[in-house]
Amino acid sequence: xxxxxxxxxxxxxxxxxxxxxxxxxxxHRALDSNNVRDALKYSAQMLSELRxxxxxxxxxxxxxxxxxxxxxxxxxxxKETRCGCSIIDLYExxxxxxxxxxxxxxxxxVGSVYIKSKEAPAKDVLKDLVEMxxxxxxxxxxxxxxxxxxxxxxxxxxxxxxxYEGDADTVTDAVEFVLQNFIEMNKLWVRMQHQGPARExxxxxxxxxxxxxxxxxxxxxxxxxxxxxxxxxxDTVLPRILEQVVNCKDxxxxxxxxxxxxxxxxxxxxxxxLEILLSACPQLQPSVDIKTVLSRLMERLxxxxxxSTEVLPEFLQVEAFGKLNNAIGxxxxxxxxxxxxxxxxxxxxxxxxxxxxxxxxxxYVDQILGACVKKLSGKGKLDDSRATKQIVALLSAPLEKYxxxxxxxxxxxxxxxxxxxxxxxxxxMAGVIIQxxxxxxxxxxxxxxxxxxxxxxxxxxxxxxxKLHDEIDEEDFNEEQNSVACLIQMLYNDDPEEMxxxxxxxxxxxxxxxxxRLPFTVPPLIFNxxxxxxxxxxxxxxxxxxxxxxxxKKIFQILNQTIEALSAVPVPELALRLYLQCAxxxxxxxxxxxxxxxxxxxxILYEEEISDSRAQVTAIHLIIGTLQRMHVFGVENxxxxxxxxxxxxxxxxxxxxxxxxxxxxxxxxxxxDNDSIKDGERVLLCLKRALRIANAAQQMSNxxxxxxxxxxxxxxxxxxxxxxxxxxxxxxxxxAIQGLFExxxxxxxxxxxxxxxxxxAFFASTLRYIQFQKQKGGALGEKYEPIKA
Length: 789
What we know:
One of its GO terms (biological process) is retrograde transport, endosome to Golgi. With 789 residues, the chain is an all-alpha fold.
């Protein structure tokens, strides 16, 4: 059925165009022969095609434009030649056309020439034309007729500086003509909704939407009249337009025309007539999308304020904020069914306006947030995605403007708005806050601000009760917690006492975050605390005996308790690393008991919690590396810890891992910059033990695989021998090194040897190094000379 209707409409349009073209042909022929009467006759017949009611507005427009082009040619003819007929007679003559629609089109065409001739005041002709057009009350035909009238008259209005301005013709007449035409067109446009059966209402509304520009062009013409100054706009133009908008009581018309007024007239006019414009808003139909209208108005005013600082006093003079705030309150009160998202959009637009015009008035910003809280009160957590998205935009605006979270923290209603966000959106907003801090490199420097900030982002640092058992996307969770970790690193205060309070405050929050979050949040807190320890250490060195309130010892106690919390996760490998970091910091502060305690905790974790063989290998090398750098321990404590480390090394599961850990322990007995720790004999014992383990690994390989394993372990041990040989360990003899060379060479030439290119390259590099030292000469070269590689 629909396709049949479209095909019929195409046929009717084609027939209309054919009839129009035929009559246009005869009209042109009459014009060529200067036969005015025939020209008018055929032009009237041509225009009779516009009397159809069968076409949709879109198709009617196609036909209208064909007729419009022909009428322009007729108008040109009347301007250039009168054919012995005065313009007044011509004006009378066209009124003899049989049908009213062709008669009025011809009257408008000749009327345009009449005004151009200046034989009569422009206002009289315009008034006559606008009144005569009332003869067409069919909505579509009437709209296009009045659109034609507007089109041909817009350059002939008695405006300031216009050739048609005179004693009898004023700007007031031009404004009155355009307003009258606008009012009549709007009435026709509104009447369209009542034409036809109710079942076709949706189609009619679509057709009305297509025709809206015909009505809106009148407002554009008004805005282009030079004589419409602020006084005339305020006293005449705007009140008349708004009266028509309110009285038409049509949702589509009210929304479109309010938007038109905002878009076509200058910003400074809107600012000076804000009260008049806003007073119309509560009078509109409840179904009108007034939030969009007001948002666009505030957007224009915001851009106007941002364009120049010189205009800002005007905003203060007219008290723009108060008027807009009051209007929004009335609109929200009047439209009780307005969705939450709509109200938040209004507050968001008002906030953007305020941040542009009154950036220094935090009380205005907080007032807007407070109004938003009032609207949201009793609603609980919002589940409307549009509303929550708008609240995120609302809360993000101050962060983007001030580029400083500390300013946002001064707003009492900021956290109260966030309370209405659902858990997912709350996390999004918390992420936005953290990103703002990171982007602007903001350091949060007081306990009060830290507490306020962590209350804002508590969605990221603590599980809500209702979401406790829900599945959380692992990747998103990790990203969120990494952002919190970055935030903890941004907390800083020059005063150690205040910084310690900040650390304790953060610790209080993160320990409530549950075991899943601790591996992300504890490490940055530990490292931030260690920064404070090192600052205190340098201050103590410079303070010459002055007492510093927060001592490193006190901080280490807090750190010990904090790392213990990780046992609930458990993540023993992470806890062990943190204990070793703290031990190293305690070493720098010369706190032997504290450092020993941290090492003890690390050893307990190793023995009781770390069972995976790979994790054990990593852990023992971390222990050896850290212990090797410790200088604070006395002989007894160091021997105890060293003995434990070598014991752990020898008990690793895999022989190669055992071997590498044992020869790494040799460094515990020989520290280059500490003469008291240079026990060559125990170094040699470690290396020999490593060599025995390597031999055992080789034999096991032969027994299980029938082939010898790699000689890589022997080459690594050889390099350790060479290292200590260079450092002056008298226990490392040339003969021992020579014996190792022969062992490696024999093994590499063995038929059972598994090829290992990496080991071959390592051995070749070692040989080149020895050769290089010999060629280089000096004391070191002389030491290497006896070695026959």
